[in-house]
Amino acid sequence: MSDTPAPGTSPDESVRGRTLRVAVVGLGRAGVAHSVMVANLPGCELAAVADPRGSARAGLRGMGFAAPAFPRVERLLEKIQPDALFVCAPQQERARVTRIALESGVPAIVERPLARTLAEAEELVKLAAQRRVLLAVAHPLVFEPLFARVHELVRGGVLGPLRQARSAMFVSRVFAPHPRRGPNRLDPRRVAGGVVAHLASDLLFALVRLLGVPVEVRASWNLIYGAVEDELHGMMTLADGVEVGFDSSWSVPGYAHASTVIELEGREGKLLASDEALELELERPAAGFAAGHSRILEAEFDSPARFDFGGEALWLHDAACLAWVAGGPPPAGEGAAALRAQRVMDALYRSAAAGGRSVPVS
Amino acid sequence: MSRREYPAPRLLLSARALDGASRATRERLLEIQARFHEPESLAVTLVKAVEAGAEGVLSSPSAALRAALAELDRTIPLVAVLPALRPQEYRLLEPGVEPLLARSRRDVGSGWRLVWRGLLRGRVFRAGDFAARVPLLLEAEASRLPRRGLESVVIAAPLTDAALAGGHRVFFESTARFVRGRFRAAAGFETRNPGVLLRRLREWSLRPDFVVGPVNPRGLGMKPSLEETRAELARSAVPLVATEVRASGLCTLAEGAQYARSLGAHGLALDLAETDEVSADLRRLAGEPRE
Known about the structure:
The complex is a heterodimer. By secondary structure, chain A is of the alpha/beta class. Chain A is 33% helix and 23% strand. The N and C termini of chain A lie far apart (43 Å). Chain B has helices at 16-19, 26-35, 39-51, 63-70, 87-92, 98-107, 110-121, 130-141, 157-165, 169-183, 194-204, 226-235, 253-262, 278-287; strands spanning 11-14, 57-59, 78-82, 150-155, 186-190, 210-214, 240-243, 267-271.
């Protein structure tokens, strides 16, 4: 555990001397990453972990983590009373584990998507509200300093009224040696979907938070390797008629790392944001930017995370969620906000399944 | 690890961009990978680097590197980053050392496989434990190493940082001992968290031969923070070979190198993605006096 907090990003500012005891359920890649973050967040302690697979528990112990490990979440909650629980169980298990946490009064921070089906997600958000237990969904993209700045600028009106928007998230996943395809890898009975549910829902959440919930969507998909989509092309219509393009694929070459682009055009200027830079083309000076073209490289943004295990955003996300648990403000990704993005994802899937016809967002 | 037995490198050419382990932009990485697609072009660059003053090349023993080395009738000193995996391969494997072992087991030859099975079944090799299983992983990865020129073995950042987060002191101690004994080479650890690693090594009184991590005037990648990393560099007895000295292009090579050295970095590793003039830049770095 680190002992020097970064200003404004650490849960222990609100805790006032009390260490947050945090547990993690599900020790796949996301669960291990959250365990690493918790162990390196000032004011936090990895109090326990759970996974039914002995090999996964042994794997985490083998990295040096000494937290008690349990095969079942019920047993964990019986023995340990954590202040918060990261739910990183497989998608088909996620709703059940989250429900158990909420019914036990334990704040839950859930990997995206919140649940395999929209109905389950709705039920969880309702339960959290009824029980007054904190619920958040892991959407780290909006914590990337560059994309956080995009949100500030656009919400601050730097572009004026929006005219159109395009966005994309790509990664070369199926070209890797062990692709997530083939028999039993992505069974639609066990997962919410393919590239959108697993990857691009992060971008979708950022768009919904930035631009609002679209009133209707239409989408098409390509199922190249299996029963879930490898690519999805969507068009979303906002309440004021503005159209927002949304492309996602894990089947394009040349993207070793997930790559995100948001392109916005407003009456007062244009904005292009990617993982590498933020570019603005403004009609007149605004928000500290001169008129004309400005470019800020990703490396120029502050990087306050205190431990790097796959990027800046995860640490900042976990710090914000646990600061909420400790009494701070709600983070981006709190349950109701995440549910709005899941409704849009559900509508995109329904449209694609219906051959691309327009579908209202519930 | 009470005394250092192998000298840490002062100046290296890093080919980590070819492994995809770089902060360079996607366009730049694709450009570099295209430029060195042919083994001959990489081979020529390696020779030029050594002639310009680099003590070796920091790289995983990838197929591309091995093909380039095979083109040459001279030995290029290698600081080998193991296991030889691209970041996207790490991302697709389950976490921990066992999936890496399974992958390596698939890659080794049939004769080896029999020995391997016996080793894995030995009770002493505790499943999942980095300290016990990473030596097996390195043993399997040894088949990728060239017969000559191995100067150092560096544990790749995903493994180093997982063990660092877990506070696995024994892993760092036993792995360094294993590397020195098995490979007769220096033992290093690559990290994305140089200040954190240096602090823990100091607290644990451990001295691997060196660590490899980012140092630059912008503090990019210097976790937990620029100030704390700088303080640890001043206190640490473990040499650090600085990477990413140009901070993704925010400063010049001269500025970055001078800054890293002024903070006490023992050596520099100039990545292919950070230079278009390998010979000239390395020659300049080799000629610059240390502070």
